[in-house]
Amino acid sequence: MPYLIDGHNLIPKIPGISLGDLDDEIRLVQLLQEFCRIKQKRVEVFFDNAPPGGSSTRTFGSVVARFIRQGKTADRAIQEKLSRLGGEARNWTVVSSDREVQANARAARAKILRSEVFAQELESIRTGSPQDVSEEELTVNSQSVEEWMKIFGIDPLDEDE
Fold first, then answer.
1. Is the same domain home to 107 and 134?
2. Prediction pTM value
3. DSSP track, 34-97
4. Both 96 and 120 in a single domain?
5. pLDDT (tens digit, 9 = 90+) per residue, 88-144?
6. Could you list the residue range(s) of the whole structural domain that residue 84 is in?
């Protein structure tokens, strides 16, 4: 399930990143790239106040960053994206703690995830918590251990060693 993210709403919820940082947006994009890589997800993140010259869209792997021109808000751009998605909006998750953004997501039947909750998930990825290891990786590791035990002549069933 892909995500639509209210970027400037999420940034203050992530430890170590502040809206006052010069590189706050790119740091969030980097975290989102890691999230997408590990979770095999797609993300569109929306930021207010694009640099002079208008809005722009930049793609960073599975992360699409949309910089919204002045005079328009990221909240409005998320609402427009949900409208364009139509019935497909129900297959998307909107990440924001902004009540208006949540109301628009609810109206479009998209799933809603508060920024605080999503920030915790990003933090667990950043700190490398064990929940990020897939069952397949554990199986491969278990097999590797058994193979190495055989190479070194250790019987994995022998508890006396």
1. no
2. 0.76
3. HHHHHHT--EEEEESSPPTT--EEEEETTEEEEEPPTTS-HHHHHHHHHHHHGGGGGG-EEE--
4. yes
5. 999 999 999 999 999 999 999 999 999 999 999 999 888 875 444 444 444 445 555
6. 3-128
